[in-house]
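Readers of this paper often ask what the protein records in our data store actually look like. Such a record has a labelled line for the sequence and another for the backbone structure tokens. Nothing more is needed to write down the fold, since each code stands for a local backbone conformation. The remainder of this section carries one protein's record, kept here as part of the documentation.
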Amino acid sequence: MPNLRLADLTAEIEANVRRALLEDVGSGDITAQLIPAERLAKATIITREDCTISGTAWVDAVFRQLDPRVAVHWQVSDGQRATANQPLFHLEGPARSLLTGERTALNFLQMLSAVATRAQYFADKVADTQVKLLDTRKTLPGLRLAQKYAVTCGGCHNHRIGLYDAFLIKENHIAACGGIALAISAAHRIAPGKPVEIEVESLAELKEALDAGADIVMLDELSLDDMREAVRLNAGRAKLEASGGINDSTLRVIAETGVDYISIGAMTKDVKAVDLSMRLSL
């Protein structure tokens, strides 16, 4: 599946930010009203830890929607690595608006940069192999496209976006359809042209999936020896994806089996927000 591009997300970003500002600002920031409306200020946002940046467009949208008078000056861009204590961007404008938008802007940037940083960590581990690392649907509700975009900023790739753009036939689907071949045949009939991926748990099931014309076969928790044999048996007929039990200690050896893809849910679901700080000057 193709990776998300920032140009495709304009409407999504505006909607994400609109909801986030409504959630945080509501009927108005009463604390910011303590500051005279005419007072101007500057602010610098730094990262307190090394990270890979993602989310600049969401920050821009926060201040654009909140107060177009705020100027945002970036010192980094999406996909760039930043080091601890490095300035990321500067703000200039009404003090009230800088303070009102601070938390929403930093929430987006710290979360999306955390995803990008985690993805970069995994990508670096297999940088000299041919494998592509894929995300999953284990994302925050309402922020899937944002998180999947962040994955690409870290050098990894997007799996299907949702339940509508590709088939992923798992054990329960297979059982309900009456078998692997019947499930794949039905998928091709229901939505011709959509990628058909099916999960297998043995080499015998792999052979059945290949004979039935699967586009991608997910090898679910197969042993390393079985993955190597799967690559040999496949001989390029379909793409092979390893899934399940992927962690720091197994990622590299799985990549070296020769599979095409490895999917990692931890890229989006097991992240810790990057520590950011805003320093205001009047």
About this structure: The mean pLDDT is 97. The longest strand covers residues 40-47. The two ends are 48 Å apart (CA to CA).
